[in-house]
Design brief:
Helices cover about 65% and strands about 0% of the residues. It has about 120 residues and is mainly alpha-helical.
Length: about 120
């Protein structure tokens, strides 16, 4: 992989990290209704149980999205660290080269397609 390729992947990872960081902040704000109250009940008006259930479901769903985004953010940071150590673009299982097309599609990947399938099947 050329220096130019690495820089292009670095820029891509940093842009993705910036976008995810914004998404996480926005989603966390939504889940906590931007004022720190959990569950959305801020008035003294009675709340219908179905509305409360819907609010709780939406909050739980949003928090699961935040968790997923945080996991991807961690993968991005790990990929940048691998880049600094010189291991970016090498499969962590077989030590083979990860094809550029795969890195373009998933720039933070740790595995080639063959090993990714094997790792996913064993989980």
């Amino acid at each position: 992989m050329t220096r130019s390729d690495l820089e292009q992947f670095r820029r891509s990872l940093i842009a993705l990290r910036t976008r995810l960081t914004g998404n996480i902040a926005r989603l966390t704000g939504e889940a906590l209704n931007a004022n720190g109250s959990v569950g959305g009940a801020t008035s003294s008006a009675p709340l219908h149980p179905a509305d409360a259930g819907s609010d709780a479901f939406e909050q739980e769903f949003t928090l699961s999205l935040v968790q997923n985004e945080e996991q991807v953010l961690e993968e991005i940071n790990d990929a940048l660290a691998r880049m600094d150590r010189g291991g970016y673009g090498k499969c962590e299982e077989c030590q083979g080269t990860i094809p550029k097309a795969r890195l373009q599609a998933l720039p933070y990947t740790r595995h080639c397609v063959k090993c990714a399938r094997r790792v996913q099947q064993s989980s």
